[in-house]
Write a structure and sequence with these properties.
Oligomer: single chain
Bound molecules: zinc ion
CATH superfamily of the domain at 186-358: Valyl/Leucyl/Isoleucyl-tRNA synthetase, editing domain
Helix content: 25-40%
CATH topology of the domain at 186-358: Isoleucyl-tRNA Synthetase, domain 2
Structural class: alpha/beta
CATH architecture of the domain at 186-358: Alpha-Beta Complex
Distance between the termini: 50 Å
Number of helices: 25
CATH class of the domain at 186-358: Alpha Beta
Number of strands: 32
Radius of gyration: 35 Å
Length: about 850
């Protein structure tokens, strides 16, 4: 085998060109393709399918995907057969809203067909942007496993899920009041609702007792609902109102009469202790309406305007009606008091509009009956970090509704069902025919099994988007049996789910529920939960940050493409490894610059090693570690400790320990000390033996190689580039990314710093302290140092003299001399002084 020559690594590090070269190797070797027949142990990852409507990709996205990918690359090097797919979530409200805003259309002024077409177009564009982004960032995805939640495979999977749940009796259709988004004009699930705190007005409004004519005062922040009032309540123990039980109250302005009833749930301390119930102000109203079989008076339309019941206020938007009704009440002196209050308003997560309750038939999945089982599943799941578990438990415990999966929208997976027009009997599609669109396709049944009618109507609602994304493990495992897809049920349950914490209540919960219902088990063994990428002010990075910070040249520090172009993907990834798993990470351009410094230093130090390695024959026998110099043994010991820390961190899915340990080793040990010391063996060969040079070359060769492997999950491009130039000709593998992960060496890990090295480091520290005391730069070459060994024992004296060359190069001085000195070092009996310039 040939010996190492100089100039294997060029002077300039060109990250864009290196990126292209790396991808050529990776794609040429099909390095990231999942091999179904491979006998290696499987490691499969359920990755979050991003909304492709997010044309505003920012560094926060890059962060969370990079964090998961560090683990993927680590596992691949550990010898696992990696299944790493990428999906896109392109159906549902986020895409619909994006299309509405982009094209200035809404449900009322566009056809279903045209709207779906626009959604498809935008979806395709968005997916392309994402794919480019992920490649740019170096994600080692097997793109042949790609799916999108609107594609036929996913439609087939979610329709199959519907049919399975239907057959198992876990689905029901109900016409009760549901949470409603008046902007999108669709029902929502509990998980789609956020709480917003805002200022509101609390009004005390006078109703009248029909019997006695006395004022009955209720307090409400929603006076626009009084046309929908259907009852008044007081607490059964409230002495003030006993005479009213069973009587009636007259509603102001609207004049209709409502029964007065009692309920233990009324808070006697709130307002006057009287409470109105409307159909429907909130979940409590819905409950009273159901329990007490109250009348139904709907005063708000699905589009958020007032109904005919609101009389003169009909047709107004809710907000306007509120103002007008207050005005009318005031004119008649029916408002006794108004005061400002802080109120918690439930809003739709997607439109940010306050939710209403609307009655419309919907399909529900039974969740409330299975809370205990879900909590058990949460117990079985391995949580990383473990404190995230409580988020799921709290959500399950707080569930108030079954899961409403119907959406009165256009762009989503159709329900695989038809209804008999005469009696409403449901006809379910045949599994072999999936995917179907009952809004377009005829019912497969010839006549109704119940009434014999031959008239059917396809369901026109679509399933909500979580109905599909809750199935991603089964989409990956090709549960629906789509022909030509790689991956089968042998990968199910998967190994790992990666996701951010805020979608535990949705994506994680729904996936666990589906897996429980369909296969009576967990969808994956482990889950890895990430925090958020924050902007410089500590807020979640938003589209606004992207818009605000684009300069004339198009550079934007929040845009991953911009940042990668300027600093390299490796530098951006290095930043992403900066927070521990589960923690938020604030973005700061200077932190990416720090990443770039590491990358450039790695390049330069590899280049220096290449020069020092000239003439080294990697295939020739090397000196035993025990026979190598103290510096060489020391760097191997420190490296062994680093391997241990990086590995332990990755085994807990926490990449940040590894980055910290690598930074410590790379700067503190390898670059600033080790290479600095040993290079003198080559620059001034007359002072050193041939053995010392051989020892240094062997150690440099091995430790740089190990360092590249440890850095590879974080910095895939530069490590590959150096590997290809320096090591590839001597190894039987195509890429550093399929190299074996460095082995842990317990003995080395436990070893102490060799005595001689401890001595060198102590003298080095003393010199550094003297440099700062005397305001001499740490990098300036000194004329010399003077060592005073009067108080030292013979062993120390001998060691100092033997290591004089190393001490000289470590302390960066031109010579080491001996004589009186004042500054006490950490070495027993040894003092030191800097020799001033001549
Ligand atoms: Zn029928």
């Amino acid at each position: 085998m040939t010996k190492i020559v100089q100039d294997l690594i060029e002077k300039d590090y060109e990250h864009e060109a290196i990126k292209e070269d790396c991808w050529e190797v990776w794609e040429g070797e099909k390095l990231y393709d999942y091999a179904p027949d491979d006998s290696k142990e499987l490691f499969s990852i359920d990755t979050p399918p991003p909304y492709v409507s997010a044309a505003h990709l920012h560094v926060g996205h890059a962060m969370s995907y990079a964090q998961a990918e560090f683990v993927v690359r680590y596992k691949r090097m550990r010898g696992f057969n990696v299944f790493y797919p990428m999906g896109f979530d392109d159906n549902g409200l986020p895409t619909e809203r994006f299309v509405e805003q982009t094209y200035n259309v809404n449900k009322s002024n566009i056809t279903r067909e045209k709207f779906r077409e626009l959604c498809m177009e935008e979806t395709a564009k968005g997916a392309k942007t994402y794919e480019e982004m992920w490649r740019n960032l170096g994600l080692s995805v097997d793109w042949s496993l790609r799916y999108s939640t609107i594609d036929p495979h996913c439609q087939r999977t979610s329709q199959k899920s519907f049919i399975d749940l239907y057959n198992k009796g876990l689905l029901y259709r109900d016409d009760s009041p549901v949470i409603w988004d008046t902007h999108f004009e669709t029902s929502l699930a509990q998980a789609d609702v956020d709480t917003l705190t805002r200022n509101g007005q609390m009004h005390d409004i006078a109703f009248k007792s029909v019997e006695t004519g006395e004022n009955l005062v209720i307090s409400t922040t929603r006076p626009e609902l009084i046309p929908a009032c259907v009852a008044m309540y007081f607490h059964p123990k409230d002495e003030r109102y006993q005479h009213l039980e069973g009587k009636e109250a007259e509603v102001p302005l609207f004049g209709h009469k409502v029964p007065i009833r009692t309920s233990e749930e009324v808070d006697m301390e709130f307002g006057t202790g009287l409470m109105q119930v409307c159909t429907f102000g909130d979940g409590e109203d819905v409950k009273k309406w159901k329990d007490d079989k109250l009348d139904t008076r709907i005063c708000i339309n699905p589009n958020g305007t007032m109904t005919e019941l609101a009389g003169p206020f009909a047709g107004m938007k809710v907000e306007q009606a509120r103002k007008e009704i207050v005005k009318a009440l005031k004119e008649q002196e029916l408002i006794l008091e108004s005061k400002q209050v802080k109120q918690n308003v439930s809003v739709s997560e997607r439109s940010n509009q306050p939710i209403e309750f609307v009655m419309a038939p919907q399909w529900f999945i039974r969740l409330l009956d299975y809370k205990d089982e879900f909590l058990k599943r949460s117990e079985q799941l391995q949580w990383y970090p473990d404190y995230m578990k409580v988020r799921l438990d709290d959500w399950v415990n707080g569930l108030k509704y079954d899961w409403n999966i119907s959406r009165q929208r256009f762009y989503g997976v159709p329900f695989p069902i038809w209804y008999c027009k005469d009696c409403g009997t449901v006809v379910v599609a045949d599994e072999a025919s999936l995917p179907v669109d009952p809004a377009e396709q005829p019912c497969p049944a010839e006549s109704c099994s119940n009434c014999g009618s031959t008239e059917f109507e396809g369901e026109s609602d679509v399933m909500e988007t979580w109905m599909t994304s809750s199935l991603t493990p089964l989409v990956n495992a090709n549960w629906a049996g789509t022909e030509g897809r790689k991956g089968d049920m042998s990968i199910y349950p998967m190994t790992l789910r990666v996701q951010a914490f805020e979608i535990i209540r949705t994506w994680l919960f729904y996936t666990v529920a589906k897996s429980h219902f369909h296969h009576d088990g967990l969808p994956w063994r482990d889950c890895m939960i990430s925090g958020w990428g924050l902007n410089e002010q500590g807020k979640k990075i938003s589209k606004r940050d992207l818009e605000k910070f684009t300069d004339k040249e198009g550079y934007n520090r929040y845009d991953p493409h911009s940042v990668i172009k300027k600093y390299s993907a490796d530098a951006l990834r290095f930043w992403a490894a900066g927070s521990h798993l589960g923690h938020d990470l604030r973005f700061n351009e200077k932190d990416v610059r720090t990443g770039r410094k590491v990358v450039i230093k790695l390049w330069n130090v590899a280049r220096l090693c290449n020069i020092l390695l000239e003439g080294f024959d990697p295939s020739a026998p090397r000196p035993d570690l025990a026979d190598r110099s103290v510096e060489d043994r020391w760097v191997q010991i420190e490296l062994a400790k680093t391997i241990k820390t990086v590995t332990d961190g990755f085994e807990r899915y926490d990449y940040a320990y590894g980055r910290e340990a690598l930074e410590r080793f790379f700067w503190g040990v390898f670059c600033d000390n080790y290479v600095e010391i040993v290079k003198d063996r080559f620059w001034n060969p007359e002072r050193y033996s041939e053995e010392l040079r051989a020892s240094a070359q062997a150690t440099m060769w091995e430790s740089l190689r190990t360092l590249l492997a440890l850095f590879a999950p974080y910095l895939p491009f530069i490590t590959e580039a150096i590997f290809q130039r320096l090591y590839k000709p001597y190894e039987d593998i195509a890429s550093i990314h399929i190299a074996d992960w460095p082995e842990e060496e317990a003995e080395l890990e436990a070893a102490e710093t060799p005595d001689g090295m401890a001595l060198i480091l102590d003298l080095l520290n003393a010199t550094r302290e003297l440099r700062s005391q005397n305001k001499i730069s740490q990098t300036k070459v000194l004329e010399g140092i003077r060592i005073d060994m009067d108080g030292a024992d013979n062993g120390t004296k001998q060691m100092v003299q033997e290591l004089a060359g190393s001490i000289q190069s470590a302390t960066r001085c031109k010579e080491v001399v001996y004589g009186p000195a004042d500054y006490a070092t950490a070495v027993d009996g040894v003092k030191l002084e800097i020799v001033a310039e001549a």
